[in-house]
Specification:
This protein has 82 residues and is mainly β. It contains no helices and 8 strands. The protein is globular and about 25 Å long.
């Protein structure tokens, strides 16, 4: 699936992912290929991206995620440096 993580300042990540784990405001959840359409708010916490070459983690400070037709768009308030 195609994933984009965007903040008001910049595009943080764009690329293909096999799974993504999010810090939802009601608890952690994971999105895989062919996931049902979804819109959710995000709490502060780690977004873990699994790709064919490994994993990558970004810490977001809240935001919104939309999943539709194997495209995942994250509109993050901010991405906190590790």
């Amino acid at each position: 699936m195609h994933l984009e993580i965007i903040t008001p300042d910049r595009k943080v990540f764009t690329g293909e992912a096999t799974s993504v784990t999010f810090p939802g405001s009601e608890g952690q959840f994971q999105v895989l290929n062919d996931h049902a359409p979804l819109v959710s708010t995000l709490a502060r916490g780690p977004v873990t991206i699994a790709t064919g070459s490994g994993t990558e983690t970004f810490t977001v400070d809240g935001g919104v995620v939309e999943v539709l037709n194997n495209r995942v768009l994250v509109l993050a308030e901010a991405v906190i440096a590790a």
